[in-house]
Write the structure tokens for this entry.
Amino acid sequence: MNQSVKTASITLFFISTLFSGNIEKDLQTQFILAEPGDTITIPEGVHQIRGTLSIEGKENLVIRGFDMDKSILSFSGQTDGAQGLSITNCKNIVLEKFTVQDSKGDAIKVQYVDGIVFRSVKTEWTGGPKPTNGAYGLYPVQCTNVLIEYSVAIGASDAGIYVGQSNDIIVRHSTAYHNVAGIEIENSFNALVYANHTYDNTGGILVFDLPDLVQKKGGNIRVYHNIVRNNNLDNFAPPGNIVSKVLPGTGVMVLAANDVHIYENTIQKNKSIGTGIVSYFITEEAFTDSIYNPYTSDIHIYNNVYEREVGFPTLDYEIGQLMAIKYGRNTPDIIYDGMQDPDVAEGLCIQNNFRADFTNLDIEHNFEKWYSPFLSNFSEDPSPHDCGIPHLSTLK
Amino acid sequence: MNKILGKSFIGFILLLSITLGESPLKYAKPKLSDYGFFIGNMADHIPRDGVLPYGVSAQLFSDYALKSRFIVLPNDEQLSYKLDGSFDFPRETILIKTFYYPADFRKPKDNIRLMETRLLIHTPEGWLGFPYVWNEKQTEAILEIAGERMDASFIDKNGGETKFEYLVPNFNQCKGCHVNQNRMIPIGPKARLLNHDFVYKDGKANQLKKWTSLDMIKDLPDLTTLPHTSNYDDPIDGSIDERARAWIDINCAHCHRLGAPGETSGLFLNIEETDPTKLGVYKPPIAAGLGAGKFKHTIVPGMPEESIMIYRMESTDPGIMMPELGRKLVHKEGVALVRKWIKAMK
């Protein structure tokens, strides 16, 4: 055989494996063969996919549908793999204008990627909020340069939009509802979370630092200009997960994180906690990680608008019951567990919030015995936390 | 040109790289027979000279599939032993693994059906994995980079019939398991997994001794100083602890180790790990989702029935089960072993 014939026959062989008429195999083959600069199109329609679609080791790719309501990858009949779409070990990947539906595990998991854009992407479990839904919707983890915008996350049994162990992050103009957590930033640095709308979740926006992870801590998190409303959904997370401890009716919650600014948000009609600032101790989980700092520190809450409708907080959780006993139908908006990091002078700063009541639970002293809370006087005076509003120019 | 194509892997690579540009497929041949690994009827897997069979003492559970393994080293080149017990492989090394089932496990040599042959090829871009799917006539296996699903069934050793869908992983999924620090690596051929006897054509021998005598390895330390991973199936090859850790290592630790995708969980299951929290003892899950079930910790000592590890090993739901990929069935014997291990834990 001469060279050109041989070359042609090999090329033909590989091309014949493409376009077999099966969209799952076609997309997967395109993802494997993609070259830098390629755009891979997700056709219009609802496409039934049985296994995780994966993109691995690629650079400069665009995966684009026609519209989030027109190009739909449905995993309702998924038999293989835990994720819907899995993207690993890549550089500069843009996901645009499509929906991932009903995956058995996480909808779109992105790991070890530098440069990931989710733009007008929807992740959804269509059967409503259920514990059998997958954990995360939009899920970048161990990534850098993450941009999530104009996207929608619905029905995740953990967090709709979850950014974990990542750095240099923007989450904006996105919507999350019917999730346990609407948006969660965990063990991550340099995150701007703004102009999002989180409603009808168990908790609206969470900023967490957890122990025993590879990226040990986070910081420089800015949460602003968001609307965090009516996050009163019953917590439907499987009980083993940390997010199952979030009180239904939580607006914004900061857990064991540091250097977090929460400002100019509208935090409305969340029945239990408008904004909670708590240490890891509140989880009552032990940890062995010697580097981990379980306290919150350098937390700033200012210029937010709070509104709460008169009514009981959740009674499903101890803290909810306690608040109900203490405050009846008028629970405070900003709640601090009072666990001040002994090594840090400036733990929590609160200024100039509109219609915000405050309470310091001082859990270290007020929960020594089961009846202690009934005898204690929680401090409702925010003035010890008045450290002045930071200049915007000091924000990184 | 024919001569170069027939004899030289490099020539093949060059030709394909012209044809296929940047595609990773430039390192693969379309059919298994193109490589000429076997003589006679290819399905019989009689290796040509230079294609050496080997076995590992603990295997990844793959729906009870049996596996044949071979290694092909480029001429006159050697593996070099690394201090962590793995090897550096020369470029162009090929690892061959064929997955097959007997129709009836009570007669494991009869009515064999070959499912797929996976090649790990050490290319200039690092290791790449290519799955070849066997045809029904068992005369050829064809490269299927997007993987394949096949109906399969067998009679188990108790005489019960098992029917299931066998999944051939795609090119990316190969890397999903074989990855460390973003680079693909072999899992099986490590000193501790090879440090046992293997039956060769000319008799039984310790594999590391054999490879040394064939001049395949350099810098191998004294054999007596090297560890041996238990064959978890063999009740006399190690304690319950050693056998359970062997099972967990080979089935979980390719992901659950530092530098591999499962590290996000903080759960490290490699056989060298000694920190109980990292191994899962009283460790709360991080991003397990439904995988946590109604349980709070990966391992609760003495309580396998409350340990997430067992819950996920016993599941076949893609959103719950572990490993995430590579099985449709539960490894009952593996579950029993790990249950025993957790039960005995204090």
